[in-house]
Write the structure tokens for this entry.
Amino acid sequence: MNIETLLSQDFAVSSVDLEKANAYQKRANGRLEKILVNMGALSEETLPHLYCKLLQLPLVNLESLKEWNAPEWQEKVALSKMVEQSWYPLINEEGHWVIAVQDPLNFDIQQQLEFYQIDFSLQILDDETSGFLANHYQDADQQVADNELSTDEEERLKELATEAPTVNLLNSLIGKALKAGASDMHLEPYQEKYRIRFRIDGVLQDIEMLPAKMRLPIASRLKILSGMDIAEKRKPQDGKIEMKIASEEFDIRVSALPVNDGESIVMRFLRKEAIKYDMDVLGLSGDIRNLIEEDLKTTAGVILLTGPTGSGKTTSLYTFLNSINNSDVKIITLEDPVEYQLEGVNQVQVQSEIGFDFSAGLRSIVRQDPDVIMLGEIRDSETAQIAMQSALTGHLVFSTVHTNDAASAYTRLIDLGAEEFLLNAAITSVIAQRLARKLCQHCAAPHPDAAGVIEKYQLNDLAKQCGVDINLHVPQGCEHCNHSGYSGRIAIVEYLRCDDEIKKLPKDKHFPLVARETAKARGYRNLLEDGFYKAMIGTTSIEEVLRVAG
């Protein structure tokens, strides 16, 4: 079977993409499968399986390498040259070499082996196994000193960053992170190792421990890809990588921070097609959703979201904007950074280095005659004052502040310098939010001590208030949820309607307590109670609610 037939039948590559790839190949040469990968029509992860079927070669099993030791290579072809091309000697059986390769169509190495009459056969590597072997074959002298770099050392780092072991290992880690649905990947010096962690559904998970010698090559490659200064290791840097994998476009925001033992690097994955800005996806309970939808129908006022970093505030704001976005409304956002593009919305990027911060941007925005304004965050007195005044002049304003609950938003804004009468006149509602992991629907099991938990947290009264039956479950773990017991996240929300009764309350140090009592008297739930409600209907677990809102 030729490669085109195989690509079409077994790998679902369309005839249109094949025609485009063939046309490009005739103009510029290159390998058909590589061209398809660059086009985004074929996932790079499928290449090992393609080569296995095309050449009838076995795939190396990573499990079989647990007790494996690298054989001593004494042949005339330089081992370093083979490793650069991701050709790894695997086994020597009485003079016959089994060589693991990622690209079996690399005829340069193959011809050299044949020229020196080296008896060999090939097995195919996937990215993960290639990364494992790269760790074993990476030369110790590749480690570069952590102090200030000379020109020669900088050039050496650039070489290391583009060598096959580094490229393959980083590609493998990115592929694994995307497959696991990770939002972030953390690469950190840790106990003379290089620790790799993924944040999945808001929780960091240890994935791999790499040798410390891989730290500089991987960090250097990320700096090159994201446009950072490869020689700068003494101050923080930020960069961005744009990628396309299997027809899906996404951005990677890269942050490098000097720490005691080197640099901590965090990669944040922004998948442009992964998030749906739909009220149903947020998982709001019916009563809170109705209240928020009432607020969204107003033509002026401030709607604030509060919560710590990573609590889903931006996603909720985008969802609210999306629900009112139509041709009759002009929406302008001011963000730092602009993470996702919303169709039909004018999104503005803050650039503090040139003096275009939130306050300067907001002053410009109000001259653009918008109906709706979204501020990424209220950080200072001037931004707070302009935001409140914009609401009083007929704009619907959305923004965020960092507080633990809804009522504390008033205290925070007053601390920033906003005047109390402005807050009373402008704020429509405040929504505090956390994200809790949802129980995996394939493996969640009834709580073994439901009666004890119901009594401990007095859930019967809350169940009557909410009009639901108590159906507590606990996580178990299965192949569908990567054995975590959880899959996806849902919003836990505390809602505060800023009506006349709330406005009359003095905004002193006692306000948060009095406001919470007022909200409770109206039947509004606080964060913990909304979490318990989600646990009672079987969406999440009591333990998860206590983790994020307890």
Observations:
- The chain has a mean pLDDT of 87.
- DSSP finds 23 helices and 18 strands in the chain.
- Residues 43-134 form a domain with the GMP Synthetase; Chain A, domain 3 fold (CATH 3.30.300.160).
- Residues 164-179 form the longest helix (16 residues).
